[in-house]
Design a protein that fits this description.
The complex is a heterodimer. Chain A folds into 2 domains: about 240 residues, 3-Layer(aba) Sandwich (Rossmann fold), CATH 3.40.50; about 110 residues, Nucleic acid-binding proteins (OB fold (Dihydrolipoamide Acetyltransferase, E2P), Beta Barrel). Helices cover about 25% and strands about 35% of the residues of chain A. Chain A is built from 9 helices and 20 strands. Chain B is mainly α. The chains are: A alpha+beta, B mainly alpha.
Chain lengths: ~350, ~280
């Protein structure tokens, strides 16, 4: 049995103009013990509403939230065995770090000596030993983040909810915290439900990613599944750079289906499930194209420098949308204006559901 | 104009500005130490007798005669009684206005209910109302319901508008508090009551204290409204001073005024200190 089971969650908001917006429109989700699940989507997709429905700050119009098989719907937030790390950290500025971290225990009425041991323990887990007497105002952004984490963990929740906790940190610190969070989750063995709009963050940390749009789940899968086998155009577009190609299958040649864009670019696909004359949409990631002597002929229109790599925008000879290709930044890398040929492994081409 | 000249001009302007604001106050302080009893604008010599006189310790007996001296002491007694009345009224008013104003600010900010904007609008109205209207209104009201003018009516009268002041100040503070703080408290297992006690009230403390100080100062200072509703038995200090001035400015008034300035500076300093201490 899953640790957390959400069934048919619906939540409708009334806009100031009197319209109705479904922030959650029939969401089903299971989270297993020890699992790191990320809710990913653009702002307004319902990911935060879903998180708040679990923590109890948002009531559902329909559907149920079950933890360990028991229904949470009727419990107020302070009776739910889940804890949250808030986006703004929400540290109590009138208390020092130790009292912040020990707040859940203080409220529960645990004896002071036990409390102090647990607080010291939690601070050590997040690498803040000896900082207990500081005020939140004296800490850096990264340290505050850790205090918020320790404060939520000290209550020993069955499930930890994290609402875009890294969005206020600068890039280096964010990447460091991503690894730390993942390691911490694996060590503690409790389930994390993590909300973000940052696809890189989702790919780095998650066991599974839930991609949401307009109150619905578009796809649930491992980071690799989401990246390599997106179900539809939205998921493909939202996660990473990609080339979306509208194709018509011309003929099947053994394991390969040969397809063509309207402008005549030839793209090879795996033939399984394909039929000649079929129209479909396929995605190929920029890094799956190789520059060589054969394949689609085109001209580099511009090059975007990314550090170790370049993204080349290649205009096919036959016309049509530019194709994005990743190339190593080294001597001999094509400059804008250079003629190139693009080839790809047919297996790298992934066909989306629907047309 | 060169920047240097402009800067000097600005400096001169600032100096004149502060002179303009503080000159009348400094004049009162200076006069309160002038020993000339007839014309305070002519400097005689330094004295503390107006201060000692306030507390019945003056040695000026022979000059003013025994009968005058008795009258003098009686008026000093009355003044001290007025001060006590003012302090008592201010203490009760501050307590009530702070409790009600704070509770109202919390209710209007943290709960959603029908006609909320209507309530906040009507809470601000007493502040905008001319004092004289409020004073007459209160007087007519007390007479209509047959309530004798007493310290109680002054407290009720002061509360009617000081609740609004406390409300405004606490409301400004509460609007700046991240609602996630209360959510975090609930998330960590605290009931609403515990959250109020351990998170919201401590976070609001500077605002509540500021509101209370302001209520206290305004209550101590109010003349117009109090004038209508204080009756003859319970004069407050401002009403008493106003009465004294009608019989000519006695030098003692300068001494009282100076003491009141001192008290205000202490209260304001206390407020600033509390604010700076809380700002972390």
């Amino acid at each position: 049995m899953a640790l957390l089971e959400i069934r048919g969650a619906r939540r409708v908001f009334t806009t100031p103009e009197g319209g109705k917006v479904a922030a959650l429109d029939g969401v089903d989700l299971d989270v297993a013990q020890n699992e790191f699940v990320t809710l990913l989507g653009p702002s307004g997709c319902g990911k935060t509403t879903l998180l708040r429905a679990i923590s109890g700050f948002e009531a559902l119009d329909e559907g149920s939230v079950r933890l360990d098989g028991s229904d949470l719907s009727r419990l107020p937030p302070f009776r739910r065995p889940v804890n949250t790390v808030f986006q703004s950290y929400a540290l109590f500025s009138h208390m020092n770090v130790a009292r912040n971290v020990g707040y859940a225990l203080e409220v529960r009425g645990e004896a002071r000596p036990l409390r102090e041991t647990k607080v010291a323990d939690a601070l050590e887990k997040v690498g803040l030993s000896g900082m207990g007497s500081r005020r939140p105002g004296q800490l850096s952004g990264g340290q505050r983040q850790r205090v918020a984490l320790a404060r939520a963990l000290v209550a020993e929740p069955r499930l930890l909810l994290l609402d875009e906790p890294l969005s206020a940190l600068d890039r280096n610190l964010r990447q460091q915290m991503q690894l730390e969070l993942k390691a911490l989750q694996a060590r503690l063995g409790i389930a994390f439900v993590f909300v973000t709009h940052d696809q890189e963050e989702a790919l780095t940390m998650s066991d599974r990613i839930v991609v949401m749009r307009e109150g619905r789940i578009e796809q649930i899968g491992t980071p690799r599944e989401i990246y390599r086998r997106p179900r539809n155009r939205f998921v493909a577009d939202f996660i990473g750079e990609t080339n979306i190609l509208v194709l018509t299958v011309e003929r099947i040649e053994g394991a390969i289906a040969r397809a063509r864009t309207a402008e005549g670019c030839v793209i090879d696909l795996p033939s399984a499930g394909r039929a000649a004359g079929e129209r479909l949409t396929a995605v190929i990631r920029p890094e799956d194209f190789t520059l060589g002597q054969a394949g689609i002929a085109g001209v580099v229109s511009r090059a975007v420098y990314l550090g170790s790599d370049l993204i080349l925008f290649v205009r096919p000879e036959g016309g049509g949308a530019e194709i994005r290709v990743t190339a190593r930044d080294r001597a001999g890398a094509p400059e804008p204006g250079a003629p190139v040929h693009l080839s790809h492994d047919p297996v790298a081409a992934h066909v989306l559901e629907g047309a | 104009m060169t920047p240097r000249v402009a800067q000097m001009g600005l400096g001169a302007f600032a100096a004149l500005f502060f002179l303009f604001i503080y000159a009348p106050l400094l004049l009162i302080v200076a006069y309160s130490f002038n020993s000339n009893p007839v014309n305070m604008m002519i400097w005689d010599h330094f004295t503390l007798e107006w201060y000692t006189g306030l507390f019945g310790l003056s040695e000026r007996g022979p000059e003013i005669g025994d009968q005058n001296r008795a009258l003098y002491l009686e008026s000093t007694d009355q003044m001290l009684k007025a001060l006590r009345t003012s302090l008592t009224v201010a203490a009760f008013t501050t307590t009530i206005a702070t409790l009600v104003g704070t509770a109202t600010a919390i209710a209007l900010n943290r709960f959603r209910f029908r006609a909320r904007p209507f309530y906040s609008g009507f809470l601000l109205l007493p502040m905008m109302m001319p004092d004289i209207v409020l004073g007459i209104g209160l007087l007519i009201f007390f007479v209509t319901i047959g309530m004798n003018l007493s310290m109680l009516t002054i407290v009720i009268g002061h509360c009617t508008f000081l609740i609004s002041y406390v409300f405004i100040i606490v409301q400004a503070r509460i609007a700046g508090i991240d609602p996630a703080l209360e959510e975090a408290s609930a998330d960590l297992g605290a009931s609403e009551w515990v959250t109020l006690r351990k998170v919201l009230l401590p976070q609001l403390a500077p605002g509540i204290l500021g509101g209370a100080l302001l209520a206290f100062v305004i209550s101590m200072d109010d003349l117009v409204i109090t004038y209508f509703i204080s009756g003859t038995e319970n004069t407050t200090l401002p009403v008493f001073i106003f009465g004294m001035i009608r019989r000519g400015v006695k030098p003692e008034i300068n001494a009282i005024a100076t003491l009141m300035i001192l008290a205000s500076v202490i209260v304001a300093g206390l407020g600033l200190w509390l604010r700076s201490r809380k700002a972390d």
